[in-house]
Amino acid sequence: MPVHLIISKRCMARVTGSNNMKLLTKNTIWFLLIMLPLLAAGGIYLYHQFDKELKKEMDEELVNDQIQWLIYFNSIPDSSPVFRITTPEFSIHPAQGPADAQPFLKTIMQYQEVEHKEVPYRQLEQVIRIRERFYTLTIRKSLIEKDDLIKNIALVMALAFIGLLLFTILVNRLISRSIWRPFYQSLDKMEKLQLEQMHHLSFPDTSVTEFNRLNEVLLNATTRIYHDFVIMKELTEDAAHEMQTPLAIAQNRLELLLQDEALQPAQLRSIAQTHEALQRLSHLNHSLLFMAKIGNKQFVPAGNISIKAVLQKHLRLFEELIRDKDLLVSTDFSGDLSLLLHPILADTLISNLLGNAIKYNYPKGTITIQLTDQLFSICNTSEYPPIPATQLFQRFKKNASNLENSNGLGLAIVKKITDTNHLKIYYIHKEKEHHFIIRPDRHHH
């Protein structure tokens, strides 16, 4: 599988596997959880209030109709026959007394020919007295039009509530983004901040007291960190410089002692072991000084470097080591990565990665090198387990404890070079293969 596809899949897995939630999204969800029940309760309350008011209006109409009918019945001549009228909406027929003081109002269901089904009616019923005779007066009014009106009102209310909710969410999100913009700007600055650039850090003033306080705390914290970093860096550089002369003198003295024929074999072995330890200490001292020079930007690039040319040069230099381990080196130079890099840093970058691929490989293993216009990758087989992410580029973290000539600074130097020259380095372990990929940082192009 091509290296760039591996990187893309890993990045996608990190994104899709994340369970984190943005603050604005979480704020919106909580807003919805609070607002939806309130709007639902408000809608139900208003629906019942409309229903109640419409029934009240209907009852007032029925009572008014009843009064008109009573006026009419009392105005007709005494010789009129006994009343007996029955219609779906009005009926009157003789009844036993006594008369009711107040009409009785209720909702009933009655079949309606037009609708071909039972529909709700509001009914007024009362026993009345007309010239010493008692009658049951019943007046009904269909509620189906009122129900349709209530449904239409409920629909309009629901649409209005939904529109209001969506508008509120949109406005809340826009306002929140505007209010939280200084926070995200500060966060973006902190994400891109490098240790050597902490003294250049600054935050703009905002109209929010809490954000100003946060920026002040961040600025104070980074200032203290940078101050401690400068002290430690100066201590390391001074110590490394001071150790150079005594180390050189001690090595020279030991080399002279090794040439003394009067010494016993046991003494020679002890001196040789001491000389070897001093060599490792000298190499460590040189590496620390080299890293300090990189951090101080003492290696200023004069122009672009062809990584293909550097690779070919070091493959020739490491040819004997590759042959001693009987390693199979496979190269795929489909392009040439051109980087704005100092020649010494380019040599160190390639030699450290290629040296590790040889050093940590097993006999008759493989090394696969891929080079395109976009990236450089080197992959080697190895019996060693994957390097933990927390130790990958840390100083003095050896990738294999049984390699006595390793000082644990190789990958740390590689990381220092990439960080100070706008490069990105990725590490992937898959099926006993260690992949290192380097590509330009797109944020700086």
From TrEMBL:
Domain Histidine kinase residue range list: 238-419
Reaction catalysis annotation: ATP + protein L-histidine = ADP + protein N-phospho-L-histidine
Annotated EC: 2.7.13.3
Key words of the record: Kinase, Membrane, Phosphoprotein, Transferase, Transmembrane, Transmembrane helix
Regions crossing the membrane: 29-48, 149-171
Gene Ontology MF, one: phosphorelay sensor kinase activity
Enzyme class, first EC level, given as a word: transferase
Record-level GO cellular component terms: plasma membrane
Superkingdom, taxonomy of origin: Bacteria
Pfam families: HATPase_c, HisKA
CDD domains reported for this sequence: HisKA
Matches recorded under InterPro entries: HATPase_C_sf, HATPase_dom, His_kinase_dom, HisK_dim/P_dom, HisK_dim/P_sf, TCS_sensor_his_kinase
UniProt protein name: histidine kinase
Organism encoding this protein: Chitinophaga silvisoli
